[in-house]
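Sharing a chain and its predicted structure for anyone who wants a worked example. Both blocks are below, sequence first, tokens second.
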Amino acid sequence: MSKSVKIKNIIIGGGNPIAVQSMTNTDTIDTEATAAQLFALQNAGCDIARLAVSSEAEVVACKPLIGRFTMPLVADIQFDYRLAVACCEIGFDKIRFNPGNIGDENNVKKVVDACKMHGVPIRIGVNTGSLEKELLGMEKSAALVKSALKHVRILEKYGFYDIVISVKSSDVGTMVNAYRQLAKEVDYPLHLGVTESGTGDRGVVRSAVGIGALLLDGIGDTVRVSLSGDPVNEIAAAKMVLQEVGADKNYCEIISCPTCSRCKYDLKAIVDRLKSETEDIRKPVKVAVMGCVVNGPGEASDADFGVAGGAGGKAALFVKGKVVRTVATEEIIPTLLALIHEKTNG
């Protein structure tokens, strides 16, 4: 188990719930546009939000944002250590930077001193696009780990241990291998992500494969699904990944078969309606909508309840795999919704 690091009101690592992160893509200097996006992220369920801070003017623009959100705000710094120091001073909850990008070790020490003074954790963010020149000939996952460990040791040298680490790549295999290697070397919390994963279904699948594989290994304490476009979309994708690996059980899980000629009712329409009606449920319940009685109840025997069939305008209602009665197909949705609400409100 990783050690825990506190970021404002969120504790990551140490067996705590896996935190979902995202990052704004508004112009940071536009305070109100950035605030609007941060509120949208928070309302979508984002736990930790990051902002790129690239100039003194952007530090000033961020001041009115501090204290407006329940979720922690992270300053993403590239190259200028002075911006990291300034972000600590105005009240950012965490600093993310790649120590290799901010000059000599003396600059890193200045950031460490500021973070110590203000109680601000640091995420060491290494990715394949920012590796030191001397590592470019190495196998990429090994190079990511070597770079991260080098910078961890620098922070430790100055007595700093509130550290989170990420070793991201746009290549899923490289990313997974790097995190697996890193997890053997350190007990600091790990921030998972496939960087530059793209857009739409491809981006979601690429992220889900990499993040999901590691979470199933028991590796990872906080995640970001990096998608081009509106960052709010990242939150729903991340939450689905957490649900599918069993890290979040507090939702209404609906399973359904792919259907075949034995299915005699509009299964997909029922599933779509149930998903819409149950998206706000935050308690564990599993519902099955199956195509036929031949296999349905048995295949979905771990579901709390479900239906199967549809022939002759009727479907079999089953509970924990046992058929209890039949219902008219037009009664499937109200019957299942009543059972769902009875279980989740009981």
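Comments welcome. The chain has eleven helices and 15 strands.
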